[in-house]
Amino acid sequence: MSTAAAARITGLETYDVRFPTSRELDGSDAMNPDPDYSAAYLVLRTDAGDGLEGHGFTFTIGRGNDVQVAAIEALRPYVLGRPVAELCADPASLSRALVGDSQLRWLGPEKGVMHMAVGAVLNAVWDLAAKRAGLPLWRLLAQAEPEWLVSQVDFRYLSDALTPERALELLRKGRPGARERTAELLRTGYPAYTTSPGWLGYDDAKLTRLAQQAVADGFTQIKLKVGADLADDVRRLRTARAAVGPGVRIAIDANQRWDVAQAVEWTNALAEFDPYWIEEPTSPDDVLGHAAVRRAVAPVRVATGEHVHNRIVFKQLLQAGAIDVLQLDAARVGGVNENLAILLLAAEFGVPVCPHAGGVGLCELVQHLSMFDYVALSGTVEDRTIEYVDHLHQHFTDPVVIADGHYTAPTSPGFSATVHRTSIDTYRYPHGTYWAEELNT
């Protein structure tokens, strides 16, 4: 066992964890009819003797875990043996190493399965760093010096839109009032909206019941999946609007189902129900397509981001005036480091961030990023809200808590990423107790 000062990373363990959400059609949408919400999960262990571990994961919807876990395993040599104190003091040093491996980079670069693996490992490092600091991640970031935060961001490919000097200016501008915003956040939480009523596989009775319950629980916005059948969508939007009344926002989400022209036609056909935004109306890679949709469906807003590969595509969406709402994802890009870049880009362009959180553990992670943004960068929650989906939180040791339609600010040290060992033992694929029984029947 090493002293704390000499401690090193001694282990990186991976787990393929899959939850059978397809059985109840939880998570179902026009593009993904039968998802099993899953986590390619990892644990970083050290010889510090303090019992602290770094936990991280990336989200898939089932069989993709086979590939995703293998990608995380490929990064093991870059992590083992690193000094813990140095790594936690400068996660960007690992980010540069992981992104810079030329042979692995060829698989992206900085996109897809390999980049998601990089993000999972980096998020585990940030979890460990926050635990060692005794702070929830949002407070670790909010209390950090602006110069250090800028040092954690890779500005390569961004400098035509955002320079390090401008990022530092934005962060310094965000510091005044941070103490008061922290107190307000701890009192009232961060606004949430819920997708729980809106899964495409739910019948109208379940949609109505869950929508009405959402309003009773304090949510002022819900979201419905659309895009499989226009007549069904008209009926479902009419049902939802009747259930929640005119004063509650209803967002709609097509999950990339449409071509540009179809997105315009379909969204305008649903405009009578006053949708707040249309999410992922077309391919997440089609920057100019999103811009065209935005021009044609206003005043309905255009939102996207959960499948955007990296900071560079977000930069282009913002430069092209293609989105009204930026939906970053905590586990799609290169971890906290790249999400800092994306938050800074959104602040520079004045576009509100409403993160994606539909998936196992994404609510737990992304709340920290939005809360940092409120306290130390944008300074506002106006037109900002975090997605909330009401399932699988019981598997986490520090699950999200929703009160009166708001995320309660986490107070436990870390990134809220730790899954109960019993949940891993039950849902680890294919040998966990649930899957062993399921696959043998």
UniProtKB/TrEMBL annotation:
Tell me where in this chain the Mandelate racemase/muconate lactonizing enzyme C-terminal domain is found: 204-300
Q: Which reaction does it catalyse?
A: L-fuconate = 2-dehydro-3-deoxy-L-fuconate + H2O
| Documented EC number(s) | 4.2.1.68
One Pfam entry name:
MR_MLE_C
Recorded hits in CDD domains, A to Z, give:
rTSbeta_L-fuconate_dehydratase
Q: Which UniProt keywords apply?
A: Lyase, Magnesium, Metal-binding
Required co-factor(s) are:
Mg(2+)
Q: Which InterPro entries match?
A: Enolase-like_C_sf (IPR036849), Enolase-like_N (IPR029017), Enolase_C-like (IPR029065), L-fuconate_dehydratase (IPR034610), Mandel_Rmase/mucon_lact_enz_CS (IPR018110), Mandelate_racemase_C (IPR013342), Mandelate_racemase_N_dom (IPR013341), RHMD-like (IPR046945)
Top enzyme class of this protein? lyase
Q: Signal sequence span per UniProt?
A: none
Q: Which SUPFAM superfamilies match?
A: Enolase C-terminal domain-like, Enolase N-terminal domain-like
Which PANTHER family does the UniProt record give?
Answer: ENOLASE SUPERFAMILY, MANDELATE RACEMASE, MITOCHONDRIAL ENOLASE SUPERFAMILY MEMBER 1
Name this polypeptide is given: L-fuconate dehydratase
